[in-house]
Amino acid sequence: MAAKALSFVVGDYVVYPKHGVGRVVELQSQEIAGAKLELYVLRFEKERMTLRVPTNKAESVGMRKLSSNAQMADALATLKGKPKVKRTMWSRRAQEYEAKINSGDLVSIAEVVRDLFRAEDQPEQSYSERQIFEAATSRLARELAAMEAVDEPAAQVKILDILRAAAAIHNK
To answer: Which residue windows are transmembrane per the record (predicted)?
Structure first.
């Protein structure tokens, strides 16, 4: 247990890479297999899920505080960029997109949102494209909502407005 534990307190919003934004609801002590373990108890409201993370493993699993305003600004600026569509097989791109979403890195998630966004005048997305787009948008919106103290739908509207404005510029 020599690893330096990140310090989160009850009530903090945190980002767990595979699940997105959750809230520390409790700090617990449990004895498991004869070892005393300190745990963060995280609650993910949208998924109705509770997760217990050993305090000494929080950093190694990628758990972090909410992004800084500068990191969020970078992510929102990424949304304004020109979409990069690779000409590789969808299965390979889907794996790359999932890896970016699960990385927990805000700019990587914004890249997925930007690349999979379709304006009203563009061709329809496939079902799996839409699923990945919605997962990435939701992940980005939850962090934006927690940072700006708004609800997730309001954050999604802001993200979609940025994407529509960018699409209008890039699709001329």
So the answer is: none
Pairing relationship of beta strands 20-32 and 64-65 according to DSSP bridges: unpaired
Report the pLDDT averaged over residues 102-126.
Answer: 89
User: pLDDT (tens digit, 9 = 90+) per residue, 33-74?
Assistant: 888 989 999 999 888 899 999 988 888 888 889 888 999 999
DSSP readout, 68-131?
PHHHHHHHHHHHTSPP----S-HHHHHHHHHHHHHH--HHHHHHHHHHH---TTSPPPPHHHHH
* Burial (0-12, 13-18, 19+ Cβ within 10 Å), 168: exposed
Predicted local distance difference test score (pLDDT) of residue 7: 81
Instruction: Evaluate whether 94 touches 62 at the Cβ level (below 8 Å).
Output: no
CA atoms within 13 A on the CB side of 160: 13
pTM, 2 dp: 0.85
Burial of 63 per CB tally in 10 Å (0-12, 13-18, 19+): buried
